[in-house]
Each structure stands twice: as structure tokens, then as C-alpha cells.
Design brief:
- The protein has 15 helices and 13 strands.
- With 348 residues, it is α/β, with parallel strands linked by helices.
- It folds into two domains: 95 residues, 2-Layer Sandwich (Beta-Lactamase); 243 residues, P-loop containing nucleotide triphosphate hydrolases (Rossmann fold, 3-Layer(aba) Sandwich).
- The protein has a seven-stranded mixed β-sheet with strand order 9-8-10-11-7-12-13, sandwiched between helices.
- The longest helix has 15 residues.
- It is globular, with a radius of gyration of 21 Å.
Amino acid sequence: MDLKNVIDWALNESCSDIHITVGTNMAVRKFGTLQIMPWEVTPKECEAMIYSILDSKQEEYVKDGNDLDLGYMYPDGIRIRANIYHQRNNLAASIRLLRQSIPTFEELGLPPVVKSLAELPRGLVLVTGPTGCGKSTTLASMVDYINRNTPRHIMTIEDPIEYIYPHNMAMIHQREVGKDVNGFATALRSALREDPDIILVGEMRDYETISAAISAAETGHLVLSTLHTTSAAQTVERIIDACPLEGQNQLRSQIVNVLKGVITQQLIPLKNGTGRVIATEVMVANPAICNLIRENKTIQIPSLIQSGKKEGMHSLNDSLVDLVRKNKINREDALSVSNNPGTIETLI
């Protein structure tokens, strides 16, 4: 069995991920649900599929027992993101299928305020949510919007590079961790000497990267990044908790000065079974919210999001209830991703 054939089939079936494990059946993820495939694949075929996307150095690295993240593009333009790893002395791979074209805000179903955040001259804008909720695609749509509308210099720091951006009105340089640069924090510090207007950081994984991203925003750049959090309030808490205790008060002051907005998103299966739809929470860092962050009262952020609808803010529950009322998603699916299911029941 050939991996490219499997990828072509999976794309045709609207799958988002492929899982290959030597010694067991392959699996795909379709509309968020994992499906075990009935195909009989030999261990040699599984290994051949995995090694087919590796160069000689990568293959040697994996054979030495290491895990590997990589991006790969086929000659026909199909691009994948893969993680190669080992389990029970066997090789395995998780492959994410990437869109061949970057969708617009409207195609993704993002609220209009996202466009306003993408147009900001400076500050920190975060896209958050669980794994597989489309954070990278939302960031890509923001970069693509900027690229099509403004003459700005964009630096991206990714692990691995996912979407390839053609030069349009903007100039875009993409750096891959492990190939072009050693790490996120190193690339961020270097970027400050490369005359960027906008810096995209694939993920703020640790305090060193968080600190470097905030410093970049403080020096007048627009910084876009992601975190694995499920609400705006939790996002602020995660950033602060990553800092050593003695520096947290200073970090709160820094966040207040640079944070412009947080977009939290979830992908929920459509009621008719034909795909998934996005539900979002948007927090715009207005003076009242900044004051809560400064005073360490992030627990009160949800109430200010509720009262900030004129500024484009809304809670995840607002978005979920709207989708239920429009008959797009099931009530049970809305409750399963809500941070406050009781409120949803009341609103419905």
C-alpha cells in the first residue's frame, strides 16, 4: 500500500488525520471521530509508508529511537504535518492533512472582530483551543488576510512549517524550528533584528518563548501565537503560571500593556453529519479586562466578556447556543465542549 494513495483517499473522504502503527490496523479521523480501517497492511508496508516521507538523515534519526516532527509536500501540492514516534518497540506516525488553500475568515465562520485584530499595528493576539480545533488554520487565515491587504514584513516561526504563503502585498519569511533555527525563543530574539512588522509564533510552549513573545510585542510588533487553553481567562492564567512566582506581578503588568485579544475556538460535528463547524469565544483586552488581569482577578473575565458585545466580544456559550438554535449542532455536543454546561441549558 502506498502512503500517497491513502492520503488521496483520506482527502476525498474529508478526513483530517491518518494514524499508521506497525503491526495493527490504520485509522483515520473524520469530522473529529476516529475510525479504525479494515485494510490489511503488513508491518513492512507500514514502515515503507512512514519512511517514504523522510530523507536519509531523518530516517537515521528515527531509527536511533527519536521522535520527529516534520512537514512534507508532495509534487502535486498536497502538504502534510507528521509526527513519527515509537510505541511497544514498533514505529508509528500521526499525519495531519493540511488544506491546499488557505480559507478566508468567512469560509471558516470566524466573527468579524478577528479581522480587526489582524489589522492591529502592534500587540499580542492569541488563538487558543484544544488539539485539532483549527488554531493553525485560523492563524494562517489571519496571515493570508494581512498578506493580501497590507505591505508588511511577516516572520513566521513554526514547528514544522504548515501552510506556505505566496508573496503578495506583504513579504513573508518562514523559519522552521530544527531546520532554520534551533528554537522558538532563539528565533524570536533573532527576529527583532530582521525588521519584521508581524511575528507569528507557532506555539508558546514554555516560559522562555512566552517571555520572548511578550518582549517582541512590547517593542512595537504584532505577535500572533497559540496556546492549548479552552477559555480567555484560562489563557491569561496559563501565561502567568508559566512564570516563576517572583516574576508574576511584573508579567501581569507586561501582559496588560501588550495583550489585544484572545480567540478561543472549538470544532463541533454538524448535526447533519457532513462536517464540523467552529464555535468561538472572543475577548478584547479593553481597560476593564486589563484592570482585572493587573489585580489578579481573572476569574471575573467571563462576566466582562458577556457585557462587551459592542466591542465584538462573546462567550463560547453564546456561540454554542447560537449554533444549537440554528439547528447546526446537537445540544449534547454543545454541552460536551462548554466550560459551563448549566448556563447553556438555561439559555436554550
